[in-house]
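[audit] Reproducing an earlier prediction to check determinism. Same input, same settings, fresh worker. If the tokens differ from the archived copy the diff job will pick it up downstream; this log only records the rerun itself.
[audit] input (115 residues):
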Amino acid sequence: MCLITLLMLPEDESLELRRLPELIVVDEPELGLHPYALNIIAGLFKKVSHHTQVIISTQSSSFIDHFAPEDVVVVNRKGRESEFSRLDPAKLEAWLDEYSLGEVWEKNVIGGGPH
């Protein structure tokens, strides 16, 4: 309920006390949610991302399925450093003809998996 309340705050900056923050960071928002609620939460995240910076971490392939490849930044560990890369939809086009984005992630095509 708190997450939905946050994501439903007005975008209007004239409402100083009740507006969206400049940055929203959420770790695994899908935990404990009913599968139908994933669709609602993903839709709210997409809506507010037009008005504020949103960073979400997830290990849920079904949650990733609610986003487009260009919405996803994959983090891979290279030695002792983290390497961030945005997905290129053109490189995934053949995969996405047959699989969902979450399935492509599960097949370790885009990285971001455990080492």
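[audit] rerun output stored. Observation attached for the diff report: The CA atoms of residues 7 and 47 lie 8 Å apart.
[audit] end
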